[in-house]
Design goal:
- The complex is a heterodimer of chains A (112) and B (112).
- Chain A is an all-beta fold.
- Chain A has strands at 4-7, 10-13, 19-25, 32-38, 44-51, 57-58, 67-73, 76-81, 90-97, 101-103, 107-111.
- In chain A, 0% of the residues lie in helices and 54% in strands.
- In chain A, 37% of the residues are buried.
Chain lengths: 112, 112
Amino acid sequence: GAVVSQHPSWVICKSGTSVKIECRSLDFQATTMFWYRQFPKQSLMLMATSNEGSKATYEQGVEKDKFLINHASLTLSTLTVTSAHPEDSSFYICSATEAGYTFGSGTRLTVV
Amino acid sequence: QKEVEQDPGPLSVPEGAIVSLNCTYSNSAFQYFMWYRQYSRKGPELLMYTYSSGNKEDGRFTAQVDKSSKYISLFIRDSQPSDSATYLCAMSFSFGNEKLTFGTGTRLTIIP
C-alpha cells in the first residue's frame, strides 16, 4: 500500500530557530499533500494544502510566513517552522493522496 | 456549531464487547466518510471509508452511514486490547485531492 514517510519523528529546538519537517511519498506520486497540526487530546487541524509546483493554500488563521511549505517534487513536501516559539510546540502530521489519504507518522516539535 | 461532532470519550469497555463509535455532521454535501485509528504519538491509520449512505464491513469492523440523519458509526466486534486507541471520523466532499474534515476523536480503551 501507499506509504508516507515523515522526518524527523521528534525534534527539540531553541526558541527563535527554524525547524524543517520532511514528508515523502515513498511508492507513489502525490500532487497534493496536506499538513496538519494536533494538540494533545485534540483532533487534527488542517494548516495548509501543498500543491506540487505551486504555492500552498493556507487555512484561515495560519501564518504563511511562519509556516513555510515547499512542494518541489511529486514525492516531497517540506514544512519549515520559522522563528519557532514555545507555543509552536505541537504534533505535526502530513498526509498525501493517491487513491486515498495516507498519513505520515508525525513529528513532535518541542520548542524550549 | 462544529461541522463534525464526535464524543471525545474516554470510552472504556471490557475485552470482547461490541464498541459503537459515532459522529454527526452538519454539511449534507459530504459524500465520503472515513474512520481512522490513531495510536499515541503516531499518525492516523485508515480503517475504512464509505461513499454515501450504506454499510461496509471489514473483518471485525463495520462502518455505517446514514446521510438522511447526517450520522455515521463504526462498530467494532469482539474488541481486543490492541484496539485501544483514538478513533477519528473524517469526511470530504470528494475523494482524492481534497482536504478532510475531522471529528475530535474518541479515546477508546479495551480492558483485558
